[in-house]
Amino acid sequence: MYSEKVMDHFSNPRNVGEIENASGVGTVGNAKCGDIMRMYLDIDDSGVIKDCKFKTFGCGAAVATSSMATELVMGKTVEEALKITNKAVMEALDGLPPAKIHCSLLAEEAIHSALWDYAEKNGMKIEGLTKPKSDIHDGEEDTKEEY
Ligand code: FES
């Protein structure tokens, strides 16, 4: 059902954790399944992503897609990271079962949410970036029930 790459990133997820004083932090949640993903970006003065970490409270596909998403954004500029779609994440993982496509969407939205936070903190506008609908503001997730 799952590709070897998905199983690898699920069993051995890359870049799990937090970044203290991150340039941008984004948290997104899927209203239907209740899974939550948080992405931390460390961005240097020239707009290049130097580090990326994540925490995912969710299904295996959500863990694998967020792990792959961190690998894809690392070293990219903000503009390049914005172009990383859930399709690109899925392709990098050699595909996902149709029922799990929404999990990869969460990874794309987590990147966008962290970029949105970075832009807000720096009073800038990133061309083409909109705030993800699944964005969870700070504190809101604390009111959610545990899954
Ligand atoms: Fe919802 Fe995977 S089942 S993110």
Could you tell me the number of beta strands? 3
What percentage of residues falls in helices of 4 or more residues?
25-40%
**What class do helices, strands and sheet pairing give?**
alpha+beta
Class, according to the CATH hierarchy? Alpha Beta
The mean pLDDT is 93
Oligomeric state of the chains present here: single chain
Question: DSSP strand (E) fraction?
Answer: 15-25%
Q: Provide the succession of SSEs.
A: HEEEHHHH
Strand order of the largest sheet: 1-2-3
Any low-confidence stretches, pLDDT <50, length ≥5?
142-147
Spell out which ligands are present: FE2/S2 (inorganic) cluster
CATH architecture: Alpha-Beta Complex
Question: Helix count?
Answer: 5
Q: Distance between termini?
A: 24 Å
Q: Report the sheet with the most strands, covering strand number, pairing sense and barrel closure.
A: 3 strands, antiparallel
Domain NIF system FeS cluster assembly NifU N-terminal: 1-123
GO molecular function: iron ion binding; iron-sulfur cluster binding
Pfam family, one: NifU_N
Protein name: Nitrogen fixation NifU-like protein
